[in-house]
Specification:
2 copies of one chain form a homodimer. By secondary structure, chain A is α/β, with parallel strands linked by helices. Chain A is 24% helix and 27% strand. The longest helix of chain A is centred in the C-terminal third of the chain and has 22 residues, at 200-221.
């Protein structure tokens, strides 16, 4: 757990980030090249931190339970993480990348790494909340994370990030515990889409709920939030894109289109975090004396 | 803490609720009469549970710190709570009322009571999270609640409610702890408005954030949420109304206007809670092994 730094003099006030939203084919090398090309363009536009979508090196392989798909995983460090380190060093930017990690024989994680601009992996986060629904069989592939909720202080970039992954976005506890460590920006690489059998109303409700819950983390915690989602049709799912960046008031400051690749950038004014929290001092008023039962499953007796 | 009942056979599937949004003048008797008249109309429209706005019997007296304003408080039971009991019994409906409670000499609470349709007070909740900002000097008036987060099983109405109050709405922990006890419907009587010196952008952001955070409680917990806010200009504030009712998907199913009184009703289909939670089983996947630090103020070392 890193030390919270609220000393404004120790960090610059703005950072430009970029989310890379794209489609994935069946060839991993092509997917990684697509990201690297778009990241290079983002760096030219001034991005200092570049974020991948969830499991950006492959198609979303969890639509079926197939033992051979574990072959997509790599150790960390491994070829794809090394490629990210080289990219970060060559561009002089930080890169947060979502990878399928092979930790040991028969133990795999959905893992994000943070690479600083010198090309070093400074932290990793293993997805804590694992979904399992038809076409999202993640409990089969991913061992639940055991590194807890974490923050990353980026040397040079002057921001403290909190890497989280996809399903984590539905849990206010994850956002809170990350913000409480000093995160100024929550990152949610995501693979979310519509099953082709759903009604139009269900589809609209799902997209709205996905935006709402992440806006609420910004509001409740007074932090920036960025979600990076893929696009494209893969088997039974159409991934809906709509990557977005939210300010500490819950306002969407940048949003990518639904069905097209996008380099989504925004300049974050980190001084707004203190301003927002002075106006709405929620962190001051938490009733920590009454929160112990949050560690229970249900309060049914 | 009441026992959770998930046995559908023990409850009917729908309940019609009404939120009463109105302006308040300086005469408490008139304010209470206004509510009773509107509640009577709501009952004629079929409402089975009727909800007041926050501190509905008076103007929002917390805009200044003035010792004489403690005179507005009453014990519970007391005149206003008895009036609510008579109203509930005469109409044959449940009433959730937000009151300024005098508990003892020098100890006052912002308290909600639940009156069942027979006219009995079956539960009370004392506001747990207390704000304090310019023009909202609640820490001066209200001792923080000591009854914890609670649910109310309504005899006859077939619904389990969770009474919360205003500032509680900004805390995901409060919604979660109430839903975990089996609440199907979270109630937030509210007194929120715009300070006249704010910019139009700030005003828009505040209203949007207020809606977002409460929608997020519906989404995160798979419950109905209802917020009842006042209207009218009182001193430096214009209360913005916009009372609303949200379904477990986070969809607004009823919304009152900004500047006018309203009887806002909706029929809630309680079977949708199970449907929603089957589709998005967030409660299944909480990482309770990692939530202990939520009982800390900040994780800064």
């Amino acid at each position: 757990m890193l030390r919270v730094c609220y000393n404004a003099a120790m960090s610059k006030d703005t950072i430009k980030i970029a989310l890379i939203q794209h489609a994935c084919g069946t060839d991993s090398a092509t997917n990684v090249n697509t990201f690297c090309d778009m990241a290079t363009e983002a760096a030219k536009q001034g991005a200092e931190l570049i974020v991948t979508q969830e499991l950006f090196a492959s198609q979303y392989f969890c639509q079926v339970e197939d033992e051979s798909r574990f072959d997509l995983a790599e150790p960390i460090p491994g070829p794809t993480s090394q490629r990210m380190c080289e990219l970060a060093r060559s561009l002089g930017v930080a890169v947060s990348a979502s990878l399928f990690e092979k930790r040991a024989a028969g133990m795999y994680h959905n893992t994000s790494i943070m690479v600083d601009r010198s090309g070093e992996i400074i932290d990793r986060y293993r997805k804590m909340h694992i979904p399992d629904d038809p076409r999202f069989y993640e409990k089969y592939y991913f061992t639940p994370g055991d590194l807890g909720f974490r923050v990353q202080q980026l040397p040079g970039a002057g921001v403290t990030t909190g890497m989280l992954v996809c399903w984590d976005q539905w849990f206010p506890e994850a956002a809170r515990l990350t913000a409480m460590q000093g995160a100024q920006l929550l990152l949610y690489p995501t693979a979310i889409g519509w099953y082709h059998g759903e009604t139009e109303q269900d589809k609209a409700d799902q997209l709205a709920a996905w935006q709402t819950i992440q806006k609420s983390h910004a509001v409740a915690n007074g932090v920036y939030v960025a979600a990076c989602n893929r696009v494209g049709v893969e088997d039974d799912l159409t991934f809906w894109g709509h990557s977005f960046i939210i300010d500490p008031a819950g306002h969407v400051i940048a949003e990518a289109p639904q069905g097209e690749p996008a380099i989504l950038t925004a300049e974050l004014d980190l001084s707004r975090i203190d301003t927002q929290r002075r106006g709405w001092p929620f962190l001051r008023d938490r009733r920590i004396d009454a929160y112990q039962p949050l560690t229970q499953r249900l309060l049914d007796q």
